[in-house]
Amino acid sequence: MKTLKSIIFVGLFASTINQTFALNFVSLEEAVKKGFVNLIIKSKGGYLGEVIEMKVKNTSNRPLDFKLETGRKLDSKNNNEQDILVTKPEEFSLCSNQTKTIKVTGMCCQAHNLCPHENADYSIGRMADSNLIKLATFIDQNKYYANFSAQQAVWAVSDNNSLGSITDGNRTVVETLRRYVSKLTGKVIPPYEVSYVRNSEREVQGRARTIDGTFDYALPVNAHVTIGIYDENGVLVQALFQNIEHQRGNYKLYFTFRTLNLPSGVYYAKMKTNGSVGKEMKIEF
Fold it and tell me: What average pLDDT does range 160-172 have in this prediction?
């Protein structure tokens, strides 16, 4: 009986310790709400990598363990500059009244806002939606912290950009990110890449400049072929070639669609023989 009592006591003691540690663990958002911390959050400038410096002071009367979660959005106080998605978690402890400065790794998540300037002010914000949290976790697992293809993947989720905009860098990484975002969002991976123009160093992603892709088509018989790109109303906006004689067979056309002076939207690459559409491919930007 004495042994049994000892086991019960040890079990209760261990449970109490675990509960104590669990109570001490707190997200920075909750800590701010409960008045446990003072936060000063500043941008270091730039749009991916170690982009935020956060000064945290424990204003409570006891030591606390804090966590900054992967997938949290830090809100820019300037509506013209991008919010930051945290892509690497941070865990740290502070004694009462202790202050610590931590460097935060993240990526911009508002494609058509400006890149944050140095010393721009931020607030702790909230957790992002589930798809952005999953993507941020994937970036963390693969250590894509400073990878621009991963930044483009974030914009494909946060701003509904085409998967064709995930283009820069190592082809293996690009394909890995395209497949992951496709699975995450249900979007089909397009047979083209979207390039953007920058008007300034702080405009991270401006208007689509060109779309480079491939258009596959087959001819069962010899024919004269016209291929062009049309808007949703069927108006030709760019001819790729017109009335060119083809032998029957399979073809692959590499094309560049110049989009800078066109409104964003849906377009179609169409192959026509004898005036009839033989194949079309949807293009979005």
Answer: 89
| 163 SS3 class | helix
Tokens 């978690």 belong to 89
* Residue range 73-126, pLDDT digits in tens: 999 999 999 999 999 999 999 999 999 999 999 999 998 899 999 999 999 999
* 156-174 mean pLDDT: 91
172: part of which helix (H) or strand (E)?
A: helix 171-185
Tens digit of pLDDT for each residue in 41-60? 999 999 899 999 999 999 99
**Residue 242, domain extent:** 208-284
H/E/C letters for each residue in 240-264? EEEEEEECCEEEEEEEEEECCCCCC
Alpha carbon distances (Å) from 251 to 228, 239, 278:
15, 17, 13
| Contact yes or no for 63/24 (Cβ under 8 A) | yes
Question: Whole-prediction pTM value?
Answer: 0.81
* Residues 267 and 191 occupy one common structural domain: no
One domain for residues 44 and 185: yes
Pair (188, 231) in one structural domain: no
Residue 269 shares a structural domain with residue 182 = no
**134 phi/psi in degrees, rounded to 5:** -65, -40
Which CATH number covers residue 270? 2.60.40.2560
